[in-house]
Amino acid sequence: MFPGIEATEATMEGLLGSLSRDAVLVTCARLNTVVSGTGDPDTKVRQERAIGLICSNEDLQRINAFAQTRPPGDLPIVFFRGQLLELMRWAVRCCPASPDIKALDDPAARSRLLQAALIASTFWSNRVFGSRLSGTLPVDEAREQALGAFRRGLEESMIAPHLGTTLGRGWALFSKHFPQHYPTFSADFFEATGLTVEQYFTCVTGLALYLPFDRPDGAVFNAHTVADATAYRDIFSAYMASESQTPEELAVTLWDGFTEREYRDLRERPILALADGRAVIIDPVFFSEKISVGTLFHLLKVRGGKANKIFGAFGMAFEDYANGILRRMYPDRPGLASRLRCSLTARDREGRDFEIDAVLNYIPESLVFEEKAAWLKDEVVLGDVDVWIKQIRSRYGIVAAPANGKKERPKGVAQLAQIVRRILDGNCGAAQPDFADVAVIHPVLLVHDTRLNAPAYGTFLDAEFRGLLGDAPQGKRVMPLAIMTIADLENLESSVVEFGMRQLLADYAEAHPDGLVSLHNFMVYDERYADKIKPSAQLIADSERLIRLAQRELFPGSPDLETEERASGV
User: Fold this and answer.
1) What is the average pLDDT value for the chain, to the nearest integer?
2) Are residues 63 and 170 in the same domain?
3) In which domain of life is the source organism classified (predicted)?
4) What are the residues facing 482 on neighbouring strands?
5) Domain-located, residue 232
6) Which of 75, 185, 227, 360 is the S-S candidate for 232 at Cβ 3.0 to 4.6 Å?
7) In 17-100, which ranges are continuous DSSP H helix?
8) pLDDT recorded at residue 216
9) Domain check: are 81 and 194 in the same one?
10) What is the distance between the terminal CA atoms of the chain, rounded to a whole angstrom?
């Protein structure tokens, strides 16, 4: 588009050196909301809206001329999430610290910002992919080499999840399930934030109304007037103190120790607060994560020494939450045998106690679930591939015993392999009658981490599972491993009236036996299922109640709630 302009640090510094820092940051945040905010996932609609915010007629002609060189249907992506986060990094380093957020009204200034954004794309690509994609290595080795890049590439090109399911999940986990396994949660959370859990969710819910990609008035809000005339005035100020950062703080966040920490500090404080009182959500995806798990990480600030206990309690809360969805999908019917069994406990012939998180029987086929809320350290995702693979195995498999001989407890697919092996060998003790006539087993790893949807993770974890499982006896069959994220299960809750889960997994295994394509993408793009997938009605109802509460407490004088709900996609 701009022949003769080189994608170098010197060029980037020259382009940004005359642009207002605050204006660039706010514009990047607005563009980021357009390309990665909640709402209609249509890429063309989002790109057209983003281009309209910044590009001049001359720039638009350049884009159209480039698009005409592409194959039919190959839509050029001008703006995307990872690029805009990268551009914000350079803005806080290169732009003069001017608070004038209208400085980009000049078309020439916007054109310079467009050029800087395209250079940021190159910087992002070099950082994320670099030499990690190989066309010369053996295919299995090449896939392992690319695991980190695939995960980061997916994460930094994704859009924020459906607002209704995010709010509903976060509220269910932390108002109901987590406190049951961590009794001091409310007191510890108040100590960490000065807010009750209810107050925190009211604040995040109120600001979540700024996440839709097509919000008419954009993503900027005045932090000084939110809840100004209500009892939440001081509460919202306390919330902003814990969740926001200034441009000066952002300059430190995005550079000092970035190689080691990546965007961790931006995940923790995803709101930019300007000196004049205005504020903007920097990144819709990170903000959505705060809705669903932000309370957990605030807890670690005051109880960091109890991290294992906290994450253990969250793991149990996640199992309760996931099994609650399964029970709503497959309720017990009077006079009929129950198809679903959750938290099934037994003892094998060797005297070892074990638990199966969930079993869904379609005799002679059975779906066996292992549910995991593990956390991968994403700051190491782009480092040494062997370190990253060890990280995956430590959370979802088993790591070889270290020099001291201490064995790691099997997790994820390793647990699933042990359970399936017991079923195949008739070694489930009191639980064996549940599998007496089972000939086909569908192993399902149900995870909290939605980024396991990235390409090749299904292939890698299925190979780990198969290696640990061994061969199935004659007359028995174990289907390819399916990785189902909690978002997939939430979407299935209100969708299985249209089809059976067993059929879905069978069709997925037939279409993608190697696991290269995720179950999520299969559900979204396969013509048999794409039009039948819809958000959980239960979670949508829960989120609507939260939105009404936030509207009443934070924005009592704003337009009616129905308008806000339409804008938010709830």
Assistant:
1) 90
2) no
3) Bacteria
4) 444
5) yes
6) 227
7) 21-36, 43-54, 57-67, 81-94
8) 83
9) no
10) 39
